[in-house]
Amino acid sequence: MRKLDRLSIGGLACLLVLVLFALGSPAGAGGDPDAIVGPRLQPPGPGWWLGTDNLGRSVLPRVMEGVGTTLLLSSVAVLVTAVLSAAFGILAGYRGGYLNELVMRLVEVLYSFPAIVLAILVAAVLGPGQTAALASIVLVTIPLMTRLVRAAAVAVAQRDYVTSAVISGAGLPRVLVRHVLPNVAGTIAVQGTYALSVGIAVEGGLSFLGFGVQPPQASLGVLIQQGGTYMIAAPWLILGPGVVLVAAILAINVVGDGLRDRLEPRETRSLT
Amino acid sequence: MRLLMWWSGRALSSAATLLGVSVLIFAAVRLMPGGFAETVLGPFATAEQKAELATRYGLDQPVFMQYGHWLAAVSGGDFGISMISRQPVGAELLARLPVTAELTVLAVAASVLLGVPLGVLTAVRARPGGGGAAGRLLSGLGVSVPEFVLGSLVVFVFSRYALGLKVGSWVPLTQDPAANLATMILPAAVLSVFAISVTARTTRDAVMGVLVEPYVTAAVGRGESPWSIVRHHILRNAATPVVTLIGTTVAYLLGGALIVEHVFNLPGVGSYIVQAVGRRDYAVVQAGVLLAAGVFIVMNVLIDLLVGAIDPRLGVLAGRRS
Amino acid sequence: MRPLRLACGVAAALLASACAATGPITTPTDAAQESAAPGYLAVADQALAPGGTLNVQVHIDSGAATGYDPQLADVATTWQLLSLSYETLVTVGPDFAIQPLLAEKWDTPDDRTYVFHLREGVTFSNGRKLTADDVVGSLKRLLASKSVWVGQLGPVDEIAKDGDGKVKVTLKEPYTPFLAALANVPAAILPMKEIDDKSVDPATTLLGTGPYVVEDHRQDVSWTFRRNDAYWNQGKPAADVLNITIAPEEAARIAALQNGGAALATLGNVDSESMLAGAADVKVVTQATTDFYYLMLNSLKPGSKLADPKVRQAINIALDTKQIAEVALGGKGEPTAVTPAGLPGSCDPAALPSAAKGPDEAKRLLAEAGAENLSFTLTIFNTEPAPAVAQVIQQNLQQAGITVKIEQMDEASWSGKVYGKAPAEFDAALSWFAGYADPGMVTKWWNPETAGFNAGFMRPDPALSAAIDAAGKEPAGAARDRALAEVCAQADADAQMIPLVTRPATVAFRTDALSPSLYATEGYGNVLRLVADARVKKSR
Question: Least CA distance to C399: which residue of chain A?
């Protein structure tokens, strides 16, 4: 096992800063994100450090709220995905048989939908809002993670220690939780970080197409969608949320890479 | 014989998946709130007009009957009639497919022509233990910028500084290839950024995996030139994950194309689906999504075939992938 | 070449900034537009040679299960497209004046009778001459149809041929908005001979007397119109081909304008003027329309506090329409009463009883009604600027202690929720009406028995309905203005549908590619009303 490399630590630090930034919103820092505080479309200045939006609201508290919404939504969604994928993937991989067949077929069906199409269908059925965004992210991220967890579980099932545990009379739940789960945890962690970045992108895409969270709540997707229209007249509207969104996804991806390198180390060599 | 068995099994499971997809689409479309009647006819329509519309499109029958009729029609190549344009959906899809296909082909071409060499280069140049932080950061950035952010940015920049490229004035390929390309390059570029980055990352990982194999060590020992090693040993052995990835990318791009078509106002399948969802044009949503899923499923079968051709050990006879 | 053009550009920019510096910031409507006559935003330069191709981009296509039938078209965006091929007996001129079109003139022997003299030499685009039978047949077909426009046409008693080339319409009682109602696309004159013998289906074919003929239409992608060479109005239309591209995304339309892909485009964002401020050769103008946003309060939902007139009145008082206009519409709209602000004869929204009162009065009314801590859901569609309007409403009502939860959905779900069931399921909803060309017309929707579509959430108010009918009968003049003011006051007290602010239309065009004609005001949402006059500049 190696330590996380410097880049991943940087990513982690970046995430930490974003979380702290987001926590400032419920704590009241920056002011009320919904209140009309000044003239419309003002450039950054005292009273509105990141400028005002098209309704004269201060952008800073809105970005803070937006980061919080997006991170919270995506994290909860990815947690749900991780739990469901772990359960289905391990069961299907370890037990095999018709259960495996059923799970894999369902996963295959979900996997066949392009992510954003699936998300739009879910949002259209549930109506725009947090629930729809959450369900979309779960449905979009679940197929890949379930597949990979299952593959890992299949490999683990044939290991000696699992066989010996079964021979020594351990019950199924005990085998799954004590022996299989710890060995697929790495896969879940790595995939979880990727799913998180996908989740943030899906939330953003949904908001961009008008299926996102309800106004006046801000999310990064909503802010970018609105900021995009004002790119010429008020570039500060898209700058903040755009940078934060890319930074969040980038940080998560970098951490995911680092985690993968740590949990699934490979030797490398150079040709030159 | 085993090959035949494998193929029939694969075809069967693909068909089962497609059937599952069709059920899911149909259910989703019927579960959408907002009646088709209010949407299609508008608020001023009377109850009679709504009933008439429902009868005309068979929407007053029980849902499972509707599904049966639809499935039977689709199997016969009939995708139904759009409630909005009152034209056959199949013909319109056929007219729009080339746009999405062109976008996807351009993006895939870019990802292969740029992503693969980039991946090989960064892998071969990487120092043992060295992180290649710059490359990782760069490719990380590529996968981290969503299409809608990049698309909006590109539309903004190029609408001010055109540089001979066009935004928002699509011309059919058959009408004027040069003008068409001028309108397609920007959206294709936006779409391909993600694909290039992912391809580069995967190629890099695959190549680095191969670099530690004994036959590469042996080749280095024999004093073969790096280029020869790359050509003869590495590319062939690293190709499998890359080909698999490119297949997945095609499917991913079909989804990404939806956003890009929306941003750049291109009349492709993606914008067709988005508009149809908004208007509850059931037949169009069903056909569009089924098409996207169908392409994905067929693509997966093709990848299996291709992987088998590249590396017989991993192919068809090595058993099913899942 | 390049330095020269650059120099010209710099000179123009200097000139422009000099003009801007000399006075207060001017809005396009009152800015001294080089050639614009009163009532116009722009007048096409007749010195330019006719011909050429005009590329237009709009945000939405026509689209309804009823197809192209103009009589059944009920949204302004569809009227706009159909008006290129269909014409009405009379039309709306600058400042809402009624002008001749297919009728060369008309007599009104008494206040219930109209005799239209049809224009000579008018043919349909299939070459057949327009006859009085087409006119009589079209209007009869309209009255027998399920068109919403029947409610606007008024108490028509009889339509008959009155000798050659003349048509007489008799009303049951005087109805002042009659001509204005005849001026809109649903009252267009159709080729009745062909429709009756079933050789033409107006749902699938456009066959009218208008300046353009449809060559091609791809739903939600584009229209191609070609000039009708046999058009009766000599020398029109100026442009040979009119391409209309459907571009739902605003950024794409702005981009097309900037890089020359479009010569004219409709814009939806209230700030598009400042967004295109630096664009060379692009001019942005705001057309004042009579369209306006209104807030629906569902008084028929069982158990709803909004059934109480006092609660609705409190909401009406707490609304700050000035702030809505300033903030949500960037100052491009203005407060309005039920008679659209800007139409001659409309009442003054500042004089409404609710306008004089403040949040404290609203709080008092709520307390009286036992509805302190009132909280309800406002259902809106996601097309801008509706979400902006809703968020300002939310802030307004917060001042009076009312909590509003916004529920934003796509237009389809919104329609389903608002019009799908009776009684309707929503608490409050936001939408807009086209305001038409006579102040009495849109008020008719405040009687749910005439309108129908709002019967699921609105209770008929006898006093309000009586006031609407009275204003309809009164001939234009001071007495009618008083009658309309009474309608405004009654609607303000009823507060089941609360008028908010007018909804401006923004149009941008390339000055180096096009010299268009545009009215300063528009009642039927038709930006392309004068497109037959537009001259394409070819030397570029």
Answer: A35
**CB burial string A94-113: b at 16+ within 10 A, e below:** beeeeebeebbebbbbbbbb
Name the pTM for this structure: 0.86
Please state the ipTM of this predicted complex: 0.85
Minimal Cα distance from A229: which residue of C?
Answer: C251
The CATH homologous superfamily of the domain defined by C292-502: Dipeptide-binding Protein; Domain 3 (3.10.105.10)
> Percentages helix, strand, coil for chain A, rounded to the nearest 5?
70, 0, 25
* Structural domains of chain B, ranges and CATH numbers in brackets: 89-314 (1.10.3720.10)
A43: left (phi over 0), alpha (psi -120 to 50) or beta: beta
C169-208 pLDDT, tens digit each: 999 999 999 999 999 999 999 999 999 999 999 999 999 9
Q: Return the domain boundaries, chain A.
A: 6-268
What is the CATH code for A6-268?
Answer: 1.10.3720.10
Residues of B in contact with C282 (CB under 8 A): none
Q: A194-237, pLDDT tens digit by residue? A: 788 888 888 888 887 778 888 899 998 889 888 877 877 888 89
Report CB contact under 8 Å: C262, B169: yes
CA distance B53 to B47: 10
- Angle (CA) C415-C421-C424 rounded to 5° is 85
Share of residues in chain C with pLDDT > 70 (%): 92
Q: Which of A34, A35, A215 is closest, CB to CB, to C408?
A: A215
In this prediction, residues B201-226 reach a mean pLDDT of: 82
pLDDT tens string C458-500: 999 999 999 999 999 999 999 999 999 999 999 999 999 999 9
Q: How many residues comprise chain A?
A: 272
Helix residue spans in B33-112 (DSSP H) = 36-41, 47-56, 63-75, 89-110
